[in-house]
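To close the section, here is one more complete example, presented without commentary so you can practise reading it yourself. The ligand is pyridoxal-5'-phosphate.
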Amino acid sequence: MSAEKKREYQGAGTGTRAVWAGEEGPLWQRATQVPVVLSVGYGYHDVEEWYGVATGQRPGHIYSRNTNPTVAVFEEKVRLLEGAEAATSFPSGMAAISNTLHTLLAPGDRVVSVKDTYGGTTKLFLEFLPRLKVRVTLCETTDSEEIEGEVAKGCSLLYLETPTNPTLKVVDIVRLARAAHQVGATVVVDSTIATPVNQNPLSLGADLVVHSATKFLGGHADALGGVVCGPPELIERIFHYREINGAALEPMSAYLLLRGLKTLHLRIRQQNENALQVARFLQTHPLVETVYYPGLETHAQHELAKRQMRAFGGMLSFALKGGFETACIFLPKLKYAHRAANLGAVETTIAVPRTSSHVECTLEERRAMGIPEGLVRYSAGIEEGTDLIADLQQALEATLSAAG
Ligand SMILES: *Cc1c(COP(=O)(O)O)cnc(C)c1O
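Output:
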């Protein structure tokens, strides 16, 4: 968000954008890498120059809660990866989602969303927004007709997430965005699991796309961050809300995320490939009850996924026969997977939603959300796919013998 003229990278592919976008500015001290500017303030020779920057007529920065040069490069890179006109950043994915919703919603407004949103987002819908007299309706995630029906009753915001975490349901962005625009609603899509390599919600009709940059964008599980992209009118409002509310991304985190982003296309290509191979292998194993991955022909929304995604992402989940007890035996037997809550990292991570993302739900709630007790969420890293499959195979065999 500054007066600088931005380069658009027309015709350049995702990989070229991942490497170059946002980095073409003047090289500070001839450094080829983006400097980490920790300075909170920026000094000016005279009041006139200062005034020019403060009023947006000249490029520059005033105070790092508002804008910061390192953070601006991160925003610019993601903006160009999503093919958006504008972007602003946040210290976490939840900050991006929460600040966006608080900017766009006022008492009396109504939001339509789905039951399978990220746990923190569901909490905003059920706990915090109702306090502000915002009405929330959560629909069956894959029931487009129900969502269209609720939207048609009138709403100011349609909030979608696709694919979902942890059961990889796919939501029809084109169809639902069309329904929302008929009633004048703004469409927000959380595209964290897909990444801009696999899906661009803005080109499918969404008004805003949000990401937890903590996951695949950064890719190294060493920095929290969030970002929202869309048209300047909306992004300026969200930027204004977040600068006043103090949700500023740290420059050091922006640098780490930028460094991760330079290999986004390579990582996601490998993770797409690994997840697909792993999903296909798991489907053939007798201890595995169901595999959830939009890239499988057996996935309920596979055709839709093929229409709106270029590839199907690095995350999948599967249910083990014998439920939670079997999952408890199985997890520690894996060599190449951190048993950890994060996802989207270069290392494979594995989690059991029953004890991680959905630990606060009751058995009945998890059942209603279609989360089997023995569900395992698997975020494929960039290791060799053959090693991941061999590791899963030995762990499944060892679990079979241990379970007798
Ligand atoms: C992790 C995640 C978030 C929240 O992001 P944080 O960076 O942890 O705040 C939001 N949406 C999805 C789909 C996620 O996986």
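Once you have examined the tokens, check your reading against these statements. The longest strand covers residues 315-320. The chain has two domains: 3-261, 264-402.
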